[in-house]
Prior knowledge:
The protein is an all-alpha fold. It has three helices and no strands. Keywords: Membrane, Signal, Transmembrane, Transmembrane helix.
Amino acid sequence: MKKVVLTALFALVLGILFSLSPRTAAAQCTMCKTQVESARSEKDGYDFSGLNKGILYMAAIPYLLVGAVGYFWYRNTKAKKLARK
């Protein structure tokens, strides 16, 4: 049990360190990148500056939801085990 908690804590700290990294994340798939480059060359007047952030935001939400469900499931299971003793 202690090993699982330490592993989860390590993963959390590692995730926080990577999220605070000063590098910009290239979250665009090949299709999105091609469309943005072609639109920029055509000078359509569209602003694509937030596209990477939007893609990262949409990708992070499912992971956060699954993590929250896992946390509450773990907490509920732990409470049931303590109640049995």
